[in-house]
Amino acid sequence: MIYFPNAKINYGLRILNRREDGYHNLKSAFIPIGWSDVLEVNIDPDITNDNLKFTVKGIEIEGDLENNLVVKAHELLKEDFDLPGLEAVLLKNIPTGAGLGGGSSDGSFMLKAINQLCDLNLTNEQLETYAAKLGSDCPFFIKNRPALVTGRGEILEELECQIQSKEILLIHPGIGVSTSEAFALLTPNPTPLDYSQPSTIINDFQDSVCARVPVVQEALGFLKNHGAEFTQMTGSGSAVYGLFKIGSVNGLELVSKAESIGWKAYFGAFL
């Protein structure tokens, strides 16, 4: 079966404080968007039970395949269930090191795929528990709906978000930002975001990342110069996005302009 693990954006991101377990408490709104990878997962009788054959195509992913969250998701479930032999092929389209949650989405969709294919009958709440073991952003992609996110990213509350009535142009400016480096540059801010006041919705990483990676600021300027009503970096970078009134711009033309600079771009509606 074929699945489409999608990206997300952060609409505001406040890093409140560092926790004793080494993670940080945060507050953000996660909104799913249509930029997606493609994950095909099938039962293969020629593969020994509990084993996984995994292949990645498309954008190159750094590191060993055994550390990929698709593989980690399979390992989590095979600890608790007898699984048939599985084959998974991931076509990677979402840029890595971009703050878009692509790797987290891949892992969570693998959990959902195995649950469906192998008739495990796990609830969304149970899948979210497994997803939290994969990574901080992973539980969001189980229900994959706009959410107010707190804790280290695992506490989710459904959110009605007005930005879903907009179109989004998302740009990856061709360079990744290390999450650990972004945190090293950051001073936590204990003042929580107030989502009733849109003017206060900021990303705590943005200023320090822009100062260190000027092309991120250039991409934000591109969005503003082409009429975006709101611009922001997502996650710890390096991707940025602009919001537009539906029908106000030629999205294909903007994507073409961004790609002519050497950037990757996505234009569309929210999921």
Question: What topology does this entry show?
Answer:
Elements: E1 2-3, E2 6-18, E3 24-36, E4 38-43, E5 52-58, H1 69-80, E6 86-92, H2 102-117, H3 124-134, H4 140-143, E7 147-150, E8 155-158, E9 166-172, H5 179-184, H6 206-212, H7 214-225, E10 230-233, E11 240-245, H8 251-261, E12 264-269
Parallel strand pairs: 5-6
Antiparallel strand pairs: 1-4, 2-3, 3-7, 4-6, 7-8, 9-11, 9-12, 10-11
Described by the principal axes of the CA atoms, the overall outline is globular
CATH architecture identity of the largest domain: 2-Layer Sandwich
Rg over C-alpha atoms, rounded to the nearest angstrom: 19 Å
CATH top level assignment of the largest domain: Alpha Beta
Structure classification: alpha+beta
Specify the biggest β-sheet.
4 strands, mixed
Number of strands: 12
Indicate the proportion of strand residues: 25-35%
| CATH-defined topology of the largest domain | Ribosomal Protein S5, domain 2
Query: What is the helix fraction of residues, given as a range?
Result: 25-40%
Mean pLDDT: 94
Low-confidence parts lasting 5 or more residues at pLDDT below 50? Answer: none
Strand numbers in spatial order across the main sheet? 1-4-6-5
- Secondary-structure element series: EEEEEHEHHHEEEHHHEEHE
The number of helical runs is 8
- Roughly how many Å apart are the termini? 21 Å
Count of the separate structural domains:
2
